[in-house]
Amino acid sequence: MESDTLKRFDRLVAILIQLQSKKIVRSQELADRFGVSLRTIYRDLLTLEKAGVPVYGEAGVGYSLVEGYRLPPVMFTREEAGSFLAAEKLMQQFTDKGLGEYFESAMYKVKSVLRGSEKDWLAALDAQVTVNNSRPVFNESVPNALPLLFESLAGKKQIILHYQAMNADQPESRAIEPVGLFHENHFWYILGYCHLRQDYRQFRLDRIQGIYKTEKPFSRQHGTVEDHRYPNNKTEKRAEVKLLVDHSVSRYMTSGFQYYQIIAKENHDHQIALTLSVSTSDKGFVRWLAMFSDYIDVLQPASLQQELKSFLEKALKRLEESEITLKRYPRKQEV
């Protein structure tokens, strides 16, 4: 009984902290976080109200605290302090200078409320935790890309990018309406509606040569970044692809499965039978499949077998032509 009372007390404090952290908190969000029923959450919120906490609820929207209500800073556990250190190390390597400075300022405030023992523990760990990033993820001449993008996303205002596309000789000016940011394969990307192309495009942040705010509002509603990257749009044409994949290579293909939806999966002795749903407009699927072509069998559709065969034949022809070129222009012998 005493243990249950302590658990409920901890949950009430955590609910109060979460209510302070966001403008609106949904009851289902709280139930999912604490692994309890909605009825329990409603009971907890009523307890907070009876204790004098000004909780305001609106049907179909969620719960919030009356504007201006705040509790004094809470104390952090040693484990929570350790998570701040890990976050600080990651922020130093994977964000630009502008956002890094804001985070550094926030960390001073967080550390200021730590107990002395937690501060000592954090200081002892500091020199023992290192995060290395082998490649630059931002253009050093554009130190404030992330803060400006955050401002654009929150305020729904267009921004201007001077962007150096991979296949372009000179940077182009693009007016975009950012939809969202994501980090993938060591790089940051912004996905947005490009007014130049009149379509959605993604831009790698290290290729941005300049970024500028505007006061122009968004021209449309865009949804979320997941809506565009992993569309479940019924109007999008998709095809079923059936593959036999050797067990030895299947684990290396998992990163691609976030783009190509798995419909069915069957394990056999040495192979896995996979059925994928693939967009018919996806030009990168065959190239991705070619990386594993010596470990897979394409069962259907027959047109995909032919596409993969043509792709590999083209690659082989290119290699043969390269050999002829090298014979005509032999490399100088290294000294």
3D architecture notes:
It is a single chain. The protein is an alpha+beta fold and 335 residues long. The protein has four domains: 2-65, Winged helix-like DNA-binding domain superfamily/Winged helix DNA-binding domain (Arc Repressor Mutant, subunit A, Orthogonal Bundle); 78-126; 145-228, SH3 type barrels (Roll), CATH 2.30.30; 238-321, Alpha-Beta Plaits, CATH 3.30.70. Helices cover 41% and strands 24% of the residues. It is built from eleven helices and eleven strands. It has helices at 2-21, 27-34, 38-50, 78-94, 97-112, 116-126, 145-155, 225-229, 247-250, 285-290, 302-328; strands at residues 55-58, 62-65, 157-163, 172-184, 187-194, 199-204, 208-217, 238-246, 261-267, 271-279, 296-300. The protein has a five-stranded antiparallel beta sheet with strand order 6-5-4-3-7, covered by helices on one side. Strands 9-10-8-11 form a four-stranded antiparallel beta sheet. Strand 9 and strand 10 form a beta hairpin. It is globular. The termini are far apart.
